[in-house]
# Entry
Amino acid sequence: MGESAWTLFCNDSNCSKETGKTCSSGFSSILNPYSCLNHAFIISVDMLLLLVASLIIVCKLSSKKISTNSQSQRISSLKILSAVYNGILSVVYLALGIWTIFQKLDMDHTVLPMDGWLVLLLQGLSWLGLAISVSMKQLNLPCTIAVKSCSIFAFLHAVFLCISSLLEAIADSTVPMKIILDVSSFPGSILFLSCAFRGYGLKDINPNGDFDACYAPLQGEEHDSTDETSFNHNITPFANAGVLSKMSFWWLNPLLHKGKEKILENKDIPTLQTSCRAKACYLKYMDQLSEQKRRKSSGSTSMLSIIVNSHWKAMLTAGFFALIKVLTLSTGPLFLRGFIAVVQGKEAFKYEAYVLTLGLLIAKCLESLSERQWFFITRMVGLQLRSMLSAAVYQKQLQLSNAAKLTHSAGEIVSYVTVDAYRIGEFPYWFHQIWATSLQFCLALFLVYSSVELATFAALAAIILIVVASYPLTKSQLKYYKKIMLAQDKRLKAIAEALTNMKVLKLHAWETHFKNVVESLRKDEFKWISGILSQRGYQMVLFWSSPIIVPAVTFWTCYLLGVPLNASNVFTFLASLRIVQDPVRLIPDIVQAFIGAKVSLDRIVEFLEAPELGNRKAEQKCYDKNFDHSVLIKCNEISWDINPSSKPALREIDFVVKPGEKIAICGEVGSGKSTLLAAALGEVPKYNGTEYVMRALFAKTVLLVTHQVDFLPAFDSVLLMSGGEIVEAGTYDQLLASCEKFQALVNAHNDTVGSEMDISRSSNGRAMASKDTIDNVHVKEDLIMANGEQLIKQEERETGDTGFKPYLQYLRHHKGFLYFTLAILLHVVFIIGQLIQSYWLASEIQSSQVSKRELLTVFTVIGCSLSIFLLLRSFYVVLLGCGASESIFSTLLKSLFKAPMSFYDSTPVGRILSRVSIDLSTIDLEMAFKLSIAVGTTMNTYFSFIILAVLAWPVAFVIIPMIYLTIILQRHYYASAKELMRINGTRKSSVASHLAESIAGAMTIRAFGGKDRFFSKNMDLIDANASPDFYNFSANEWLIQRLEILCAIVLSSSALSMTLIPLGSSASGLIGMALSYGLSLNVFLVFSVKYQCFLSNDIVSVERLEQYMHIPSEAPEVIEANRPPHDWPCVGKVDIRNLKVRYRPNAPLVLRGISCIFEGGNPLEQHTDSEIWEVLEKCLLREAVQAKEGGLNSFVVQDGSNWSTGQRKLVEFDEPMKLMNKKGSLFGQLVQEYWSRSS
# Structure
C-alpha cells in the first residue's frame, strides 16, 4: 500500500518529463528541483508553514483589544510592499499549479503523478498564508513569536529553493517558470523577515493575550467597576475558546444544550466579547474619522474608506478562507473524472478508487471548514458595522440642528437604524461572493476547456449574454430602491406623527382621514415594491435558466465543431457547471444586497453630514462659585432661521443671570419666551452677539417660562417680553406697581381663572402656598402610581415551537395558499424535468442507436420547456409577495387605527415603528422569495439523496441514518434558534423605542447634560440586540458544518459504491450523472439550510406583525342596529351626560360624571385658504404665519417644535358664560359669528 501511495505521488519510472532523470537517493537528488525527494521535502515544509500560518490567522480571530493609539493603526509601507509582492507571487504559484493540472489532463488524461502540480499549489498557499499572518498587527506574544519563527523558517526555505533552482538553471542553461518563481521567493522571504522583526515591537504586543484589531478601549474602561456590561461574568465562551473549538463551533454547545432543555430567556444569553460591543465599534469609527479629517484639509470624509480601514484585516482573512473554499470546490469535477475512469477500467493503480474516495472526503471537509469560517467572519464584521452605524446615528440625532430636523424626521431617523444600518450590516456577508463566484467561473472554464475544447467559448458567450441581459434589470432595481426608500420615509413620517398624536386624532375623530393619508402614501410605495419584486422575478428566471441554456449551447457547438461527446467530458462539464449554478442563482441576491447597501449608506452618510447645533460651544464648564454670572446673552438679533433675510425671533437682548437667581419670563403668546429659553440652552442656530452659559448652574439657578402669574412673586426677577424683545425687567412688586402691561397681564389671568386672591399679598406667602399645593398633588399621584399596575409592560413575544403557524398566517393573505401551491408544483415539475433531462443524457450518451442530433434535440426541448415552468413559478412567487404585502399592511393599519387609547398608553411608539419599518420591509421584499427558495433548495437536496440511493443502493444504509441525524441536529438547532430570533426582535424594538423617545426629548436631554448617559444606555441596548443575533448566525454555521460533514460522508460512500457495483453498459453515464448531482449535494444542502435559517429569521417578522394585527378594537364607527335617521344630524352638537372614564379596567376614574354640550365643529380639509386665514386671524396667529416664507404651506416639524410653546397651546378656558361675557374674548366673538351665520 505504501508503494502504491508513492507511485501515486511520483511515478518511479522517472522524476520528470522535462529532465528524464531517475529518482536517485542522496543529497544531489534533494537539490534537484524536479526530483521526487525534492518535491516531497518542499511539500512537507510548505504544509508545516501553512499550518502555522493558519493557526496564527485563526488565533487572531479570538482577539479582544488593541491600543487606541492612531499611530499603531497605520500600515507601514514595508508591510504593504511585502503583502503585494508575496501576494502576487503566491497567486502566480497557484495559477501555474492549476495550469499544470490541465496540461497533464490534456496530454496524459490523468493528474498523476501528483508531485509536479501539488508542490506548486502548496507553495502558493503557504506563501499566501505567510503574507497574511505577517501583515497582521497587535498580535499577542505567542503569535508574535510564531510569526518571527515562521519568517526565519521561510527565509531558510527560500534560500534552499533559490540555490537549488540556480544550480539547475546553470546546469541546463534553461530558465522555466518554476525556476523563476523559486528564485523570486528569496526577496519575498527577506520582506517577511523585515516585517516580522521591524513590525512587531513591544508596543504592538499585548502581553496578556488580549488582542483584537477591531477594538480600542474607552478611556478609563479598564478601571470602571460600575460598568456592568464590561464586567458581566456571563461573557461569550467564544472569547476564550481555542482554535479547534472556534473552527468547529464547539464553544456554542452549552447555549444550544440549554436551549434544548428550556426556553431561552434574556438572562441566558451571554454578552458579546469586547471587540464586538458598540462602544468599541464607535470609538474605532471616531478614531478613523479623526484620522481622515487630519489628513484631508478640505474636511470631507469618506464613510466607505472608514469602513474599509476598520475591517480590512478581517475581510482579508475571510477572503483567504473563501479562496480555499473555491479551490477545494473546484476539485470536484476532477474527482468525478477520476471515478469515471475507474469505472471504465482506466485506473492508474490498483487502489485508486479508495484513494479517490479518501481525497474526496478530505476535500469536502476542508471545503466545509473554510466556508463556515468565511461566513462567520463576515457576519461578525457586519454585526460590528451595524453597531457602529447605529451608535453614530444616535449620537448625531442628539446634536442635530433644527434646520436638519426639517429634512430628517423622527420616523426617518428610526428607519436609518432599523432598516439602513441592518442592510449595510448584511453586505459584508455577500461581498466575497462577488469575486468568489467569478473565480469559480474561471476555474470551471479551465475544466470545461479540458472537456469540450473550443466549445468553451460558446459556453462563455452564453454566460456573458446572461449577465449582460441582467444589467437593465440591475439598473432598474437601483432606481426602484432609491424610490422605495423615499416613499418609505414619507410613510413612516406620517405613521410616526399619527401614532404620536393618536389621542388628538381620536378626540377629533380624524382617524379615518389620517388612515387614508397613510394608505395613499403606501400606494405610492407599493408601486415600487411590486416593481422590485417583478425585477427579482425576471432575474430569478434568467439565472435559474443558465444551467439549462449554457449546456444546450455548448453541446450544440460541440456537435457543429465535431468535438466528441462522451460520458467523461459531458458530465465533467455538467459537474463544473452545477457547482457554480447556485452561486450564479445567488447573483440576484448579491445585486440586491449591493444596491440596498449602497442606497442605505448614502442615506446614512447624508444624515451624518447634516448640520449640527452651532452654539453648543457657548456652554462653558465652570465650577467656581465666585463667578459673576451663570447666563449672559447680549445679542442684537437671535433667529431660528440662518437665512440672513429672515425675520429675527428676538431683538436687542441684554440678559444676565447671576448664580442662584430665580428668573420668571412672561408675556403674551408668540412674544419670544420659549426662544429666549432655547437661546440660553444654546438651541437657537443664529446669533449676532455674545452668548454664554455655565455648565454648572450654582445654587439652582432657575429660568421659568410661564403664564401662571401665581408663581411670579416667588422669583427674584421677572422679565416681561413682547414682540421678541424684553420690554420690562424687575421684581414682581416693582412691575406690578410701575408697568401697565404687566398689570393687565396679571388682571387678565386672575379674571380668567376666577381668582379672588389679593394682588397685594406678599410674594413669600403666595410662593409657599403654591409650593404646598404642588407637593400635595405630587404625593397623591405617587400613591396612585404605587397602588396601580405598571403602565408600560415588557414587550410580549412568542415562545416555544410554533410549528407551521406563522407560515400559515403569512399564506392566508390574499390567495397566498393558491400562489404558493402553484409555485411549488411548478418547481417540482422543474426538478423532475431536470432529472429526466440528465437521465436521458446519461443513458443514451454511449448508445449507438441514438444519433447525437437526436440526443441533443431532446435535451434542448426539455430544457426550453423547463424555462417556461421557471417563468410561471416566478410569476406566482411575485403574486404571492405582492398580495401578502398589501394584505398584511392593510390589516395592520386598520388594527392600529382602531386600537383603543389604552393600547397607546401602554405601548411605546418605538415598538410600533420597528414593526412598520424593518418587519414590514422584510415582508415586502424578502419573505416570498426566501420562502420559495428555501422550499425549492430543500427539494433539490432530497432529490439528490434519492438519485444517489437509486443508483447506488448500498448507500441507502448511509443515507437513512444521515437523514435521521439531520432531523435530530435541526431540532436541536431550532429549539434555541427560534428563541434567539424572537429575543432579537424584541430587543430591536427596544433600540427603536429608545431612539424615538430620545429624538422627542433631545432638547431636554441636552438641557440636563444627559447626552453621555443616554448615549451609554443606547449602546447597551445595541449590544443587547446584537448578542442574540451573534448567537443566531453562529448557530447557523454550527448546524451547516455538521450537515456538510454528513453529506461528505454520503457522497464519498456513494462514489465508492458506484465504482464497485456493476451498472451495465451505461455505467459511465450513470455514475457521471450521480456524481454530478452528488458533488453539488453540499452546495444544495448549504443553500437549503441557509435559506431555512433566513426564513426562520424573517418569519419572526410575521409573528411580530400578527401581534398588532389583532388588537382588541374600540367600538365600531357604525352600529347597523342603531343607525340614526337619514336627516341626522339636524343640529351639529354633542351632548355628554354623566361621563365616567378610566384608562384601564383596574385604573382609577379620570373623569367622574362629566356633563357638557359641544356645538358642531369644522370638518378636516374642507375649507378654502381664505377661511383658514380668517380663523388664524381670530386666533392671533395670522402675522406669525405670514412671517414665514411658505405661508400656509410652511413646514411644521413633527410635534410642532419649530413653533413656540404658547402658539402650540393657544386656547381660552373657563365656563362658557364667563367667556361669553368677558370683554374682548375670542370665544365670545366666534360664538356670535356662528349664530349670525346660522341665522
